[in-house]
């Protein structure tokens, strides 16, 4: 009787690709053949973070005579130990009391021990960054990793195996156990949170690493787990020309960009924040993009709020930015005018094949205008809107409607092509037409 060990290597490689890291390690112990086939999958992704044990594991891989060739993706764990918790025992204990986890229900001595442990890990984290250990380790690692094509920002918290026991009964890094107002404005704290990400793009530029084709941010959408440190637009607060050029170096080689982004806009100033100006410049320089996914979170302006005449499309993407090779476009959580969305599609009409708009709000115009233009003036093969609406319904602001009224004026649907090639819009089941 044939067994799995009799399968061709190509099928085993495809099969092992569905396994997580723990299962792959178990597979390696079955036999020499399984070990040889599964090892490349185990080391395709490596974790980097400003923590000694994580950096030690990273260094072990990039210095290995064989494993370094298998690495195709660097996952940067952006979750950070919080200054407000590490420097104020009373605040730490208050967060510990609110945490819904049996591991935190310790006696007073155990709780204080956990605070001291958290405090030490915070100081290690800051020392690793201040002394440029993180930057230099990334530099040496990139020089030894010839096949990396993907950079992933993870809000975390992620731990290498050796860290799991140490971290299991202290407060997790990042939200919700953080104090964003500590030490000044939220903007300053967010900039500090993303300092390690700046070191990563700086190291890529320093070693002239030109093989990165995909940059993606993992969305923090795990309600039952810690959210980590969410990726915000403050990650693009690049304080000097050298860092801006490092960012341009990364974006100039990208083919795929997946950017769930918390758009940070503070105050009532009508001027565009510098971090958004920098982001727009980086996107303008990403001329090799094939796929672009931009989904904004935690920004819900009404027409009377910040910069009422500025939409998210012009704010982040710019009004005339064009990507000559763009084939896939997905926008989510975006406030824009109907004309801006139409113009964006028309500028890429010769290359675009798939467009998705989800949870978007029109501050001017109607969704019927967008749908008509896509269907009649482009050759896009796949077009879909999902849970979109207009910011103003009649004379009322959408956000002020009841839940039942919101559902009534929320649209979902997709393009369909008939047997004769005719193109038409079909609402999703349970949704009204945009017309």
Automatic annotation (TrEMBL):
Provenance organism? Lophium mytilinum
Which superkingdom does the taxonomy of this entry point to?
Eukaryota
- Which PANTHER family is this protein grouped with? F-BOX DOMAIN PROTEIN (AFU_ORTHOLOGUE AFUA_4G00200) (PTHR42057), F-BOX DOMAIN PROTEIN (AFU_ORTHOLOGUE AFUA_4G00200)-RELATED (PTHR42057:SF2)
What Pfam families has UniProt attached to this entry? F-box-like
- SUPFAM superfamilies in alphabetical order: F-box domain (SSF81383)
UniProt domain F-box: residue ranges: 1-46
Name listed for the protein in its UniProt record: F-box domain-containing protein
Which PROSITE patterns does the UniProt entry name for this protein? Answer: FBOX (PS50181)
Write down the Gene3D superfamilies for this protein, in alphabetical order: 1.20.1280.50
């Amino acid at each position: 009787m044939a067994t799995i060990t009799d399968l061709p290597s190509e099928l085993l490689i495809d099969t092992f690709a569905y396994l997580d890291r723990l299962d792959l390690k178990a597979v390696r112990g079955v036999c020499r053949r399984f070990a040889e086939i599964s090892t490349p999958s185990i080391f395709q992704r490596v974790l980097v973070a400003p923590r000694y044990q994580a950096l030690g594991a990273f260094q072990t891989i990039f210095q290995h005579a064989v494993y370094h060739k298998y690495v195709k993706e660097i996952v940067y764990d952006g979750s950070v130990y919080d200054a407000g918790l590490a420097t104020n025992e009373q605040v730490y204990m208050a967060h510990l009391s609110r945490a819904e986890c049996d591991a935190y229900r310790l006696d007073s001595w155990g709780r204080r021990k956990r605070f001291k442990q958290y405090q030490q890990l915070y100081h290690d984290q800051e020392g690793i960054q201040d002394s440029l250990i993180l930057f230099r380790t990334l530099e040496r690692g990139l020089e030894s990793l010839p096949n990396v094509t993907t950079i992933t920002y993870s809000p975390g918290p992620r731990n290498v195996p050796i860290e799991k026991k140490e971290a299991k009964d202290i407060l997790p890094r990042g939200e919700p156990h953080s104090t964003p107002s500590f030490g000044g404005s939220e903007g300053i704290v967010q900039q500090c949170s993303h300092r390690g990400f700046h070191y990563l793009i700086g190291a890529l530029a320093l070693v002239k690493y030109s093989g990165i084709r995909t940059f993606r941010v993992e969305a923090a959408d795990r309600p039952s787990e810690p959210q980590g440190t969410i990726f915000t637009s403050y990650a693009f607060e690049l304080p000097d020309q050298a860092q801006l050029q490092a960012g341009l170096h990364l974006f100039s080689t990208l083919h795929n960009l997946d950017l769930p982004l918390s758009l940070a806009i503070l105050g009532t100033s009508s001027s565009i924040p510098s971090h958004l100006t920098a982001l727009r410049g980086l996107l303008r320089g990403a001329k090799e993009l094939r796929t672009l996914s931009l989904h904004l979170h935690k920004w819900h302006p009404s027409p009377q709020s910040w910069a009422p005449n500025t939409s998210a499309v012009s704010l982040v993407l710019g009004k005339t930015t064009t990507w000559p090779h763009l084939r896939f476009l997905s926008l989510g959580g975006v406030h824009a005018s109907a004309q801006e969305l139409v113009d964006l599609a028309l500028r890429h009409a010769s290359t675009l094949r798939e467009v998705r708009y989800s949870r978007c709000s029109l501050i001017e115009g109607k969704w019927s205008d967008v749908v008509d233009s896509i269907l009649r003036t482009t050759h896009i093969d796949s077009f879909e809107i999902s849970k979109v609406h207009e910011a103003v319904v009649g004379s009322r602001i959408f956000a002020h409607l009841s839940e039942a009224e919101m559902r009534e004026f929320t649209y979902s649907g997709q393009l369909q092509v008939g047997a004769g090639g005719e193109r038409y819009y079909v609402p999703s089941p349970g949704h009204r037409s945009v017309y």
